[in-house]
Structure formats: structure tokens, C-alpha cells
Amino acid sequence: MASAAQRAEESETHISKFGAWPQGTCLSMCPEEEAHRRFQEGRLSRFERGNDGKLLGDHVSLAIKEYTRAAAGKEVVAADLLRPAPVLEQTVRHLLRLLCEVDPAVVSDGELLEFVADRLRAVHQDVVLQNLTCLITTRLLAGSIRALLFIEHRLRSNPAASSFLLRQQIIGTLLTLDNIFATRAHTIHRISAPIPVPAPAPAP
Description:
This protein is an all-alpha fold. It has helices at residues 4-7, 32-40, 85-101, 109-130, 135-155, 164-192; strands at residues 15-16, 19-20. A two-stranded antiparallel ribbon has the order 1-2. It is globular and about 85 Å long.
């Protein structure tokens, strides 16, 4: 089975008006700097801890990058703060497992749903900041949409919960996926377009 470093090579590089799009080099679900900072601040979620609820010695392994609004005017993000597509896909799968495995009788359902939605928002942000359009990206965004629709369904049973922001998140993720499909379709059409064959010269 390929390592995350090997699979990271499947991510694509694109060009933007600012030059080359940044290509993420963070091979864990959360950048080490953020994981250590939130560990020191006591802000690691219960879902970023071991099965017994205690903090792990290696707190980077289960920490998941949280969503933060980009600073105004800041167009470029350091590569070591961005996760390549294979790592983002691994993160989405981990979040889907949490939705399936965490017992709502033990953990507040709202707490879990809010946590997963926030981390999926950070996943989408990493996709947009790198302008990822590879096949891995289509899979991870499709998985994100499934998780978000599941969360929206669960929130319907809670009249106190507001789903407006969640719906905006679903729409934004769908639009990104739709744009990727359109880009890939255009590329395939351009590559597969028939090569014009010159007409044979008329017989003398």
C-alpha cells in the first residue's frame, strides 16, 4: 500500500494569477504547528483523543485541522499548512468513521456534528487554496457532501439547531465539485479532439 508521501505525488499543480498554486506538503490530518498549539492551549477536541478520552502522547496523529478564516489580503498560504489531496481524502474517511462509530448516547450528537462540519469546511478550504482538480479530489469532495447531507438530516430532529450555514457549506462544496467536473470534461475533450488529417494531394 502506497504511503501518504507517495500518494501525494498524485496531486496536480496549477497556475494562478499569483504564480504557481501552492502544493501542500502537510502529510498529517493537522499541521504540526496547529496541533502543538491547540494541545498547549487545551483546545483539542474529545474526538482528537484516544478511545479512553485521554490525550495521546502523539497528539498530532488524531488532531484534525480546524477551519480558520483566511486573513484579508493574504493570497498565499505556506505549503506546510496545506494538505495534499491524498491526505485530505484520508481525513474525510476518518471523519466519516467518526459519524458512524461515535455513540450518540455517550457524546452529544450536536457536538459531534459541529466538529465534523467544521473539519470538513477546513478540507474544502485546502482544496480551494490549492485549486485541486485531480480524481482524488472528486472522491473526497463527494465523501464530504455525503457527510454534510447526513449531518443536515440529523439536525432536522433538533429544532434549536440552525442549518443555514450548513446549507451554505453544502452548496459551496457542490459548486467546487461541479467546477472540477467541468474543468476535467473540458480537458478530456481538448485532448481527445480528433487531429485534422490533411487531404490527399489531387492526382496529376
